Amino acid sequence: MKILIVTGKLAGKLVKDISSKSKQEVYTHVVDTPIAAFLTPRKILKELNNLENVDVQSYDAIITPGLIRKDVSVIGEETGIPTYKGPKDAADLNVILEMVDELELSSQIPADKLIEEELKKRALKFIDDFEKDEKNTKKLLKKPENILVGNLPVGEDFPMRVLAEIANAPLLSKDELLKRAKYFVENGAQMIDIGMIAGENKADKIPEMVKLLKENLNGIPISVDTLNPVEIKAGIESGVDMVLSLDHGNCEEVLPLMEEKQIPAVILPTDFGKNWVPHTVEERVNSLESLVQKCGKIDVIADLILDPINSKSIVESIIACHDFKARNKAPLFFGVGNVTELLDTDSVGVNALLSGIAMELGASILFTPEESGKTLGSVHELSVSSKMMFLSKHRGSTAKDLGINLIILKDKHRGETLIEEVDAPVLEGAENYKFTQDPKGSFKIIAENGFIKAVHYIHLKPDMVIKGKTAKSVYDEIIKQELVSRIEHATYLGAELQKAEIAAKLNKNYIQDFPLFKNLDY
Q1: Three-state SS across 413-434?
Q2: What is the mean pLDDT of the chain?
Q3: pLDDT one-digit tens code per residue, 153-188
Q4: What is the number of other CB atoms lying within 10 angstroms of the CB of residue 126?
Q5: Angle of helix 251-261 relative to helix 281-294, nearest 10 degrees?
């Protein structure tokens, strides 16, 4: 393929270096403009018309910088040569040139974005096709390591299922309970757990909670999380699809009913009735194997109890999972929330790593209550990481370049640093602004539920609320409504609205006038 690439002076050398190594026949034209983003379709057309010793009509395609804001199709219309946007970062050009024959490039969307979307679409289609293959599902369910929970296939051969717990569910109103459950499902939970209150008997609350969730969650399996036999029985009679949890202390009392109803259970290697908890790897495995035998007439999911870091030993609890799984075919339960809730770090990387460990162990269920601020978003993170690990497993590859990822605050690739020599005076920035009230009024900015709200006050009374998903949508409307008259007020609003947008997208707390990230200044 014969390609003409147009770029600016700053990226010119890098683009030429990459182009020279491509199997495509590439000519790079460097425009006398320092930054590629400053180029416009009209300016590029003018450049092409003035090219000497270059037959533009001999090229199969023209590729412009991906940072150009406008649609570049006008170039193709006037030259007769198909014209597309390249990547936003020149360093990604090599990938575009490698895939140019199989990519459907765009005159509006940067090429690197198209590649991301195509790879993501392929990855999700693979998983979707697997889940919809009823014949294969039926075959896999004949294996002892795979079971049905409600109508959901659960087991080592399926993607790990995310079980989200509604903690202290009996204390919530119906509206609060349903809102929490729907939030979990919308974020990728495939099972919902009704978390009861330790040491209390709220069995009378269970029937209405189960009924409410069953009627509103379109077949999502529901479990009840308690060791109290009375509450377990209430859950079974109310139609739960799974019980959390049985151990040596309560199993004999509830097993007859569970066998009759054929309800699967998560089982623990403990006897909380006698206040006994196993301490060694061998004790955990042997105790749980003994309980598997007791529960031989129902399906079980084995929970070796993943320990928080430096409580007993997260390493030994993982070894226990490994040793149990090596000797038993039962599905494995992995309590990710045990670690994330008791670790003061952002949850996203921890959830991804623990999902990878769970996949290698052959786990079937990833469990989280997503209860604290630092673990907000854990259900979504586990949903994505479960898919990543399923793809990794089936491709026989590391969990990299899968088409989906959990890279949120950092970049997948380190971009090429292009240093521009600027012949202009350099001034040191200094904070010297003194507050002067804008006669047009002031704003209270709020980030909530994924939206930004700017409440306009005039003489200390609210008179208008502007709401949007992005900072730009809000400040464009502020300008349209002529609600700002001072330049320092306008720049302040731009900075605060952008902070609010980032907070809304990350589910972070936003407080106007305060830093968004507190730990980036040590």
Answers
A1: CCCCCCCCCCCCCCCCCCCCCC
A2: 93
A3: 999 999 999 999 999 999 999 999 999 999 999 999
A4: 17
A5: 50
- Neighbour-count burial of 471, counting CB atoms closer than 10 A to its CB (0-12 exposed, 13-18 middle, 19+ buried): buried
DSSP letters for 69-88: -S--HHHHHHHSS-EEE--S
CA distance to 169, 182, 216, 366, 369, per residue, from 178 (Å): 10, 6, 8, 21, 15
Backbone angles phi and psi of 148, in degrees to 5: -105, 130
CB 492 within 8 A of CB 513: no
Tell which phi-psi region holds residue 307, choosing left (phi > 0), alpha (psi between -120 and 50) or beta.
beta
Can you tell me whether residue 392 is helix, strand or coil? helix
pLDDT of residue 522: 47
CA distances from 54 to 58, 62, 435 (A): 9, 13, 58
For residues 450 and 447, give the distance between their C-alpha atoms in angstroms, rounded to a whole number.
Answer: 7
Contact (CB, 8 A) for 266 and 258: no
Query: Model confidence at 112, in pLDDT bands (50, 70, 90)?
Result: confident
Q: What is the dihedral of CA 451, 383, 332, 257, to 10 degrees?
A: 60
Q: For residues 224-237, give the mean pLDDT.
A: 97
Contact 209, 169 (CB under 8 A): yes
Q: How many residues in the chain?
A: 522
Whether residue 211 is predicted with pLDDT greater than 90 in this model: the reply is yes
How many whole angstroms separate alpha carbon 396 and alpha carbon 389? 10
CA–CA–CA angle 401, 406, 411 (5° rounding): 75
H or E element that contains 20: helix 9-20
Structure tokens that stand for 176 in this block: 């609060």
Check if the beta carbon of residue 11 is closer than 8 Å to that of residue 36: yes
Structure tokens at 334: 């992995």
CA 291 from centroid of its chain's CA atoms:
36
Q: What is the mean pLDDT of residues 327-350?
A: 96
Task: State both tokens at 153.
Answer: 């296939």
**Looking at residue 420, what is its pLDDT?**
67
Whether the upstream peptide bond of residue 238 has omega within 30° of 0, thus cis, is: no
Q: How many CB atoms lie within 10 A of CB 315?
A: 11
Closest listed residue to residue 385, CA positions, set 104, 170, 162 = 162
> Number of C-alpha atoms within 13 angstroms, CB side, residue 493?
29
d(CA 66, CA 39): 10
Encoding tokens for residue 190? Answer: 């495939």
Sequence-separated (6 or more) residues with CB below 8 Å from residue 146: 140, 153, 154, 155, 156, 157, 158, 331
φ and ψ at 471, to 5 degrees?
Answer: -60, -40
3-state helix, strand, coil in the chain (%, to 5): 45, 15, 40
